[in-house]
Amino acid sequence: MLHGRDPERARLAQLLAAARAGQASSVLVRGEAGMGKSALLDDTAVCASGFRVLRTAGLEAESALAFAALHRLLRPASDRVAAVPAPQRRALRVAFGEEDGGRLDPFLVALGTLTLLTELGETEPVLCLVDDLPWLDAASRDALLFVARRLLAERVVIVFAARDDEARSFLSPLDVPELSLRPLAPAAVRSLLEERAGAGVADPVVDALAARTGGNPLALVEAPGRLSAGQLSGTDLLPSELPLTERMERTFLDRCRRLSPEAQTLMLLAAADDSLHLAELRRAGRALGAGEVAFGEMERSGLLRVDGDLVQVRHPLVRSAVSQAATAAERRVAHAALAAALDHGAGAGAGADADRRTWHRAAAAEGADDAVAEELAATAARAESRGGHEAASLAYARAAELSTRDDQRAQRLLAAARNAYAAGRTDEAEALLTSARAVADERRLRAAIDRLRGRIEVAAGSAVDAHRIFITAARDVAAQSPVQALEMAAYAGVLRSHGIDSGAALPPGTLSSFVEPDDAPRVRCLKLLLEATDREADQDWAGAIGTLRTALSHGMAAEDRDVWANLGNLALHLGDDAAHRSFFIRMLAAARTDGAVMEVLYALHRLCFSQYAAGDWSAVRRSADEALSLARSIGQPAQTGTPLAWLTLLAALQGRDDYDDLHERATALLTHHRLGVMDGFVADVLRWARAVRAGLGGDAGESLHHFTRMRDGVLARLAATPRISAAVQAADPVLARAWTDEMERFAAASALPWAQAVACYGRALLAGTGEEATALFEGSLRHHAGAGRPFDAARAELAYGEHLRRAGRRVDAREHLKRALDAFRDLAADPLAERAAAELRASGETARRRDPSTLVQLTPTELRIAQLVREGMSNKDVAELCWISPRTVAFHLRNVFTKTGVTSRGELARLTLG
Question: CATH fold of 6-180, please?
């Protein structure tokens, strides 16, 4: 019977009821050791009538085995895996060792888990119970947290359990709601004590035990066994010490020490591996002289729990007490015996038992052991191929410790760092790289180490340090490995094109000998990328653009997403909107197909540039919203910075009420997270947003202040029209002329229509009210006709209309003001639309009102789903593309139908969505 947990039971019952009705949820049960978390999960399973109950728990011995806990959770549903889409199905089977495969992206495993649970929920609601969450292997934990964050309209409930101190180490407020277990109330203390004692307990004793145990259920369960009948009835004094939470380890250890030496040996074996089977424990015990008599004694002690053929110590505190009480030599002997027991009949297989055996051999090793190190490296490679990066990092790091040769140690430390970084453990990766660098002698190996060091700095550290690392590494390895040197130099060149320069430079001619006519497309692209970024950094725009255009044909042949990303970024820097969009659309499609979630995020971030420039602001919102949701789903808060910045800018331009909230969230993220090379970008987009907000509010000086603080050259050119306008409105013609001159130089070198249009626009504003201004405005609009940047064109139409009206040419002004008004309305740029409408009224004409029925306001997710459905995709197809469940698609589609008033998919085609 569960005592004193009625409110918690009621909360969980509500979640079960909601799941029956199609509303998914997840919750984390938190509490100190002994507060009854596992008991509450047991009770929830009993109460889940009509549910399919799936259960798993974190096991310390399996914490280094990728997807072990997830496999145990989903194994009862293995017959339904066939219903999962093929890429996800294969990912699940490879992750669980049921199918061979190459390198596996863990995101596909998480997505497959979501799909499988959704499929199960179609026939009966599903309850997933996940105990001891911190001890789950990281791959399983990440997959289940991803599912928990993506649940919406499925018939699924996930209940996690973790100790307070452990939960805080890897969960953030973005993860799942919490249910905190508090100390038991006095009435519950009494009922629990009397149940355990089998007799009444005196009131003063109840009060004393409640106070001394802090209402901790486990301590209260232990107390009656430590007290006499007289003490429980109140006739005898209570002892000065009781098995309180902080003393329970000692209590359990005392109970263990009352066992025979042979039974204590079995306890140590069980504590050393909490995923032991009975046969394995018996084999290991016999090898150390502990037979059936000792086994029976250990079972009767109550310190052990047998669940089917799985043997576990009763509580984690028992395990830690027994392990810590043993000497290092005793623990090594126990691990050696367990390794030998797992060898029995196992052959040389590469399954989970082989990995467990290897870990026991590693724990039994005293000093370096190359044979064990080799086995452990193989275990790490298997984990890495399945996407178990944290498990792989642990195994590679331990293999490095056991290696006798420095070169092997360095290679394994690098592999450990690579996997730590992939698992999101940046600080740990940096420490491992420092250790690897200290023992690496070979230049190519050092260059590989430095490549990862630099990329970590780019993503989450100092971009200036990254530039120096790349240049130094390229110089050091050029003679031995020109391709490595070229790659590093290209990375440094990309940073320099961002204005990031450490001052380090390659000596002239370092890579000049590396020019071959039959280079692979990737190598050719790297060469051209390096040449173009160097030209760009020197503001040789014409040379850079010529080199870019040469690189474009090679880029599409490269079939390398890294190359596509770099060329797409180069196209962005050089103002080629079409090339930028083409590379990142291709990268996004390929990354989606492969389930490469971080690359999907990056492509979504970068696509926002060309979507913004093209005036497809609905697409910007969709991309940013998807990136924001995805970053949260995979527990990467730093990756929310870029989409939050774009959403903040759009909110400012469109005059939306959510501006303040978005700005606050983005600013907080910038303050509390390292964003690496994106730090300056996010800061500049927020400056742009503040400038827009101030300008639309009539404060030209404040607007100009924010615009002058922008440092990113790409953003400065993208925002050139409003920047120049702000300088003119703030009566700073010197700054307006300087910014216009910059655009003229860029336009002359690039011959890009949009750049020529902006340069003419700036000259027109500076020319004042005469015929020169008129001619310049008309020139700007001629260039805009083929530029593909409708927002800048609308700004020019508005400014020209204002110019004509002030010149007394009201009829001529109306045509331009109407075009500006229509464009601003299409963009939902309400503040500027109101300004254009006011100018139109001042010209003597009233703007037509749009039919509001065609201006359906949907959330970005609803909009994306509606557009995919309009293309003829089924709910299942949309779900697979958007990485959500078909039920969630149906949920969003119902909202679309309600908001739009349509009743069928066909009617969606007649609506203007945005």
Answer: Rossmann fold (3.40.50)
- Cite the DSSP H helix spans in 426-481: 426-439, 443-460, 463-477
Q: How many CA atoms lie within 13 A of 1 on its CB side?
A: 10
Interatomic CA distance for residues 51 and 117, integer angstroms: 12
Q: Which two tokens stand for residue 180?
A: 């905190």
Rounded Cα distance, 130 and 133, in Å? 6
Q: Give which of 243, 298, 231 is closest to 265, Cα–Cα.
A: 298
Q: Which residue reads 């307990």 in tokens? A: 201
DSSP letter for 913, please: B
Q: How confident is the model at residue 475 (pLDDT cuts 50, 70, 90)?
A: very high
Rounded Cα gap, residues 672 and 377, in angstroms: 36
For residue 904, the 8-state DSSP code is: S
From the list 556, 552, 603, the residue with the least C-alpha distance to 574 is 552
Q: What is the C-alpha to C-alpha distance for residues 106 and 597, in angstroms, rounded to an integer?
A: 9
Q: Measure Cα distances from 280 to 268, 284, 301, 311 in Å.
A: 14, 6, 20, 10
Please state, in angstroms and as integers, the Cα–Cα distance from residue 463 to each residue in 460, 501, 572, following that order.
Answer: 8, 9, 19
CATH 1.20.1740 fits 719-850, yes or no: no
In this prediction, residue 363 carries a pLDDT of: 95
Q: How far apart are the first and last CA of the chain?
A: 55
Inform me whether the pLDDT recorded for 166 exceeds 80.
no
Question: pLDDT per residue over 724-736, tens digit each?
Answer: 999 999 999 999 9
**CA max distance for the chain:** 109
Question: Are 797 and 823 a contacting pair, CB within 8 Å?
Answer: yes
User: Using one digit for the tens of pLDDT, what is the confidence trace for 227-263?
Assistant: 888 888 888 888 766 655 556 777 788 888 889 999 9
The CB density around residue 330, as the number of other CB atoms within 10 Å, is 15
Predicted TM-score (pTM) of this structure: 0.80
Strand order in the sheet with 276-277: 276-277, 310-313, 304-307
The alpha carbon of residue 500 and the mean position of all alpha carbons in its chain are separated, in whole angstroms, by 26
- The helix/strand/coil state of 614 is coil
The helix or strand, by DSSP H or E, that contains position 632, with its residue range, turns out to be helix 617-633
**Higher-pLDDT residue of 353, 162:** 162
User: 161 in helix, strand or coil?
Assistant: strand
Residues in the chain: 914
Select from 1.10.10.10, 3.20.20.70, 3.40.1700.10, 2.40.50.100 the CATH code of 860-908: 1.10.10.10
Interhelix angle for 203-213 vs 186-197, to 10°?
110
Residue 169, pLDDT > 60, answer: no
250-355, CATH topology level: Arc Repressor Mutant, subunit A (1.10.10)
Rounded to 5°, angle at Cα 805 from 803 and 810:
140
Q: What is the mean pLDDT of residues 584-597?
A: 85
Given a contact cutoff of 8 angstroms between Cβ atoms, the answer to whether 133 and 97 are in contact is no
Residue with the two structure tokens 């001159």 = 741
pLDDT at 174: 47
Confidence of residue 349 (pLDDT cuts 50, 70, 90): very low
Adjacent-strand bridge partners of 52: 126
Helix, coil or strand: residue 162 = strand
**Which pairs count as long-range contacts for 193-197, CB under 8 Å and 24+ apart, including other chains?**
193/220, 193/223, 193/224, 193/232, 195/1, 195/3, 196/220, 196/221, 196/223, 196/224, 196/225, 197/224, 197/232
Q: State the DSSP code for 849.
A: P
469-473, 497-501, 541-545: least confident range: 497-501
Using CA atoms, how far apart are residues 383 and 351, in angstroms rounded to an integer?
Answer: 11
Residue 823, number of CB atoms within 10 A of its CB? 21
Q: Is the pLDDT of residue 664 over 90?
A: yes
Residue 31, strand partner residues: 163
Name the DSSP class of 833. H
CA torsion 267-270-272-277 (nearest 10°) is: 160
